Each structure stands twice: as structure tokens, then as C-alpha cells.
Amino acid sequence: MAPRPVDGGNIRQMEPPDNAQKSSVLALLFPNEEQELELVLTLRSRDIDHGGQISFPGGRTEEGESLQQTALREAKEEVDISPETVTIIGKLSDLYVQHSNNLVTPFVGFTDHRPEFKLNPAEVEEVFTVELQSLVQKKNITVEDWDLHSYTYKVPYWDVHEVPLWGATAMMLNEFLDIYREFLDLQH
């Protein structure tokens, strides 16, 4: 799900520099009324880093807290998900986001009910959920040429909202879905 340069141009930096800021996000799952898993996503407020983009709740680590604590704190601050209701079930690979110089650690969490969301408008414009199965089956994936930073890229994204789900969030989600597909295969 990583954007690829069309003309062999600018390739994104994969290795974080020593001064990369540590961040984490929470990919939160919960069962809906039909007992299908849904995933919580946010649309970031337009006046913050990566504003206007779809993301998982998350942000930069504060001094003295673990990456997992950061993910839970940010989910509480952004959409009022109580940390006590979340069970962390795993951690995905760290992902360096060059544009913001953040090394992001994604955590996967589960809660046994749909959260009662309350938005912090300074950070989140909208919160919405997507049925995991629609993502697992690779429905709604589109690839387009986009001009980004003076280069043209082939950008894959999920068409699940009026704003495309692309970039770092899509890459983290894709890793999770690969693991989830393997789990489903083991069940059969």
C-alpha cells in the first residue's frame, strides 16, 4: 500500500534518522451487532500534522510514557476511548513517516462493545468505523497517479470514505490485514 514513484523519482526514506520522534497509534477493533469486527478510524482536523487525512487515533510519545501508553492516551484524548476498556492484542512493525519525521508504532486493540465516541475537535474532525471483512477481501482498493512533492506516484488507497485511506495508515492497516488473513486461513 506504499505509494510508488511512476518515473523512478523520489523514493521515500525507510530508515529513521536518530532524531525521529517516537509516536504510536491504536488500531481498535470491536464487534458490531452482527458480531462482525469493525475498525475505528478518524479524520484528522485540518490544522494539525497530516490534517484532513484518515488515521488511527494516535500521536507523539510524551516523556516517561511507553509507546503503548501513548496509543491509549491519544485514543482517550482524540475520541474518548477509555483505556480500561481496551485489551492490547498485538503490535505491528514500526513505520517511519519521513514527512513528519515520526517513527510510528501501531498497536492493535480490542474492546467488546462499540465505544461511545466524543470528538476532540482540535484533533479530530470525524470518527467512523469500517467492517474489517470489507477490507480483508480487498474491496474498495483503488490505485491512481497522484502528484506529490513534485513527483508522480502510483497511490493505492481504500475508497471507504470521501477522503481516501492512503499513506502510512494504509501501510499499517495492510500489515494487520495480512496477519488477520493468515489467522483466518488457520481457522479453516
* Top-tier CATH class: Alpha Beta
CATH topology: Nucleoside Triphosphate Pyrophosphohydrolase
The CATH architecture: Alpha-Beta Complex
- Quick one: how many beta strands? 11
Mean pLDDT across the residues is 89
**CATH superfamily annotation:** Nucleoside Triphosphate Pyrophosphohydrolase
State the helicity in percent bands. 10-25%
Secondary-structure element string:
EEEEEHEEEEHEEH
Radius of gyration in whole Å, from Cα? 16 Å
Shape: globular
Can you tell me the residue ranges where pLDDT is under 50 for at least 5 consecutive residues? none
Describe what you observe in this structure.
Helices cover 21% and strands 36% of the residues. By secondary structure, the chain is an alpha+beta fold. The protein has one domain (4-187): Nucleoside Triphosphate Pyrophosphohydrolase (Alpha-Beta Complex), CATH 3.90.79. Strand 10 (141-148) and strand 11 (151-158) form a beta hairpin. The longest helix has 21 residues, at 167-187. The two termini are 27 Å apart. The mean pLDDT is 89.
Keywords:
188 residues; three-stranded antiparallel β-sheet; eight-stranded mixed β-sheet; alpha+beta
